[in-house]
Amino acid sequence: QVQLAESGGGLVQSGGSLRLSCAASTEIFSPNAMGWYRQAPGKQREWVATETSSGITSYADSVRGRFTISRDKAENTVYLQMNKLKPEDTAVYYCRYGSLTAPLVYWGQGTQVTVSS
User: Fold this and answer.
1) Residue range 24-47, pLDDT digits in tens
2) What is the CA radius of gyration of the chain?
């Protein structure tokens, strides 16, 4: 069992920055991927960014160039640095930890990010 603890959400003005953190209680999958998804009101959950245990990163087109994902392997923590935030980035952001070789995944409880115009 893996528990994911997210933090860092909040209210920010358009153009501002926030940094999300997600700490996993343990690492049980190898290889694995940690990443972020988001869900805006009335919309489906969408993928934002992922970093694998080997350091490969990928981003959704909507955030590439503004968001940066990084991992601290020693702390089993993934971060999402969000710059140049836009009102359309407003959503609940969820951390995801999953195996790359089996359909096994854990989700965080979500953290609210609100960007005001």
Assistant:
1) 998 888 899 999 999 999 999 999
2) 14
Q: With beta carbons less than 8 A apart as the criterion, state whether 59 and 68 touch.
A: no
Residue bearing tokens 């997600």: 22
Q: Do the Cβ atoms of 53 and 106 come closer than 8 Å?
A: no
Q: Residue 76 contacts by C-beta under 8 Å, 6 or more apart in sequence? A: 23, 24, 25, 26, 27
Provide the residue count of the chain: 117
Give pLDDT tens digits for 43-67. 999 999 999 999 999 999 999 999 9
36: which 2 tokens? 């972020």
Single-letter residue type at 32: N
C-alpha span between 36 and 50 (Å, rounded):
6
110 conformational bin, left if phi > 0, alpha if psi -120 to 50, beta if neither = left
